[in-house]
Design a protein that fits this description.
Pfam families: EamA. The protein has about 350 residues and is mainly alpha-helical. It has twelve helices and two strands; from the N terminus they run H-H-H-H-H-H-E-H-H-H-H-H-E-H.
Length: about 350
């Protein structure tokens, strides 16, 4: 009885952790959008919060290094950590927050459902996934990928009439101001960030399997990514005033993102990728849509549009079609394994 209870608790930990991550990501993005609406540069925001997050990780990394006999670091490993930083922080976050700055957290959450589709395509390219269009699982995954990309295209190109559901919390001292959004450009940036996220998930999973010291991987990945972001932002952001950090929503957004985004989120994602794989992690992305729409409408005064609803529904349909195909494929593999085991047992019995 106790063993069964412990097993259920152990199985529920990745689920609970991913729910917390998805909710926290929406909170982080909503705060970032509020900071950008108040005038903060999205590039500077990424540099500041990753710098603070890396500094917070540093003492934990030093303690971990002194306590654990980790595998030796090679130039090849450090090079791969560098690529992880480029994909997971420099390109992903700079493009992602640029897209949020031009659009909204709701669009970012909906576009996040493209990640399973891009992951599937990259897995086929790198021969990590087999595609056989004669079988229903491959047909479902292919159709789901096409639907997800179509839904993202609808959300990006067609905004549609507004749908007013909530009255947002406005006041004379409101923290954020509404801005004119460039929906198409924002959607393009967000699509690029989704591709980078998919590539990062596949690459991170492969590296952690080869080098299982997760703390070392996370620290060097964050450190390299922060340095890359800082160099690129110094080139792009020529206005010295953009680097001035003002108290209020900007400081709150940076501190929350550093603690949650750099320290907690990457640790949990790396652990879940190691335990369950990239597909399991991607399954929780649709949850962001509902949370982001509610929070964005209430706290940022954003207006929900018909194009966003239609596109999000198409993306969600494509996402769950891919998941159905993946589950069907896993079930078929399990049946084949059971059949082989049964055949082996019968052979042994006949031999006796």
């Amino acid at each position: 009885m106790e063993m069964g209870m412990q097993s259920r608790i152990k199985d529920s930990l990745p689920f609970t952790a991913m729910v917390i991550v998805e909710f926290g990501e929406v909170c982080m993005v909503t705060l970032a959008k509020a900071a950008m609406n108040s005038g903060m540069s999205n590039h500077v925001y990424v540099v500041y919060y990753n710098t603070l997050g890396t500094l917070i990780l540093l003492p934990f990394f030093i303690i971990h290094t002194n306590r654990v006999n980790r595998p030796p670091l090679t130039f090849s490993l450090l090079s791969r950590f560098f690529v992880l930083g480029l994909l997971g922080i420099c390109l992903l976050q700079l493009c992602g927050y640029a897209g949020i700055d031009y659009s909204s957290p709701a669009l970012a959450a909906a576009m996040g459902n493209l990640i399973p589709a891009f992951t599937f395509l990259l897995a086929i390219i790198f021969r990590m996934e087999r595609l056989n269009l004669r079988r229903s699982p491959s047909q479902a995954k292919s159709m789901g990928t096409i639907l997800a990309i179509l839904g993202a295209f609808v959300m990006t190109v067609y905004k549609g009439p507004p749908i007013r559901i909530f009255i947002y919390l406005s006041s004379p001292n409101q923290l954020v101001l509404l801005q004119q959004s460039n929906w198409v450009l924002g959607g393009i940036f967000l699509a690029i960030s989704c591709i980078c996220s998919s590539a990062w998930s596949i690459f991170q999973t492969a590296i952690v399997k080869e080098y299982p010291d997760q703390m070392t991987v996370i620290f060097f990945f964050c450190c390299f990514g922060t340095i890359q972001c800082a160099i690129l932002t110094l080139i792009v952001e020529r206005n010295p005033g953009a680097w001035v950090l003002r108290p209020g929503i900007e400081t709150i957004a940076i501190v929350f993102a550093a603690i949650f985004g750099s320290v907690f989120r990457f640790r949990v994602l790396t652990w879940c990728l190691c335990k369950k794989g990239p597909v399991y992690v991607a399954m929780f992305k649709p949850m962001q849509m509902v949370i982001a729409v509610i929070m964005g409408t209430i706290f940022l005064g954003e207006t929900l549009h018909l194009g966003s609803v239609i596109g999000a529904l198409i993306i969600a349909l494509g996402f769950y079609t891919v998941m159905w195909g993946k589950a069907k494929e896993t079930h078929m593999v399990a049946d084949i394994v059971c059949g082989l085991e049964s055949s082996t047992e019968n052979t042994h019995l006949l031999a006796k």
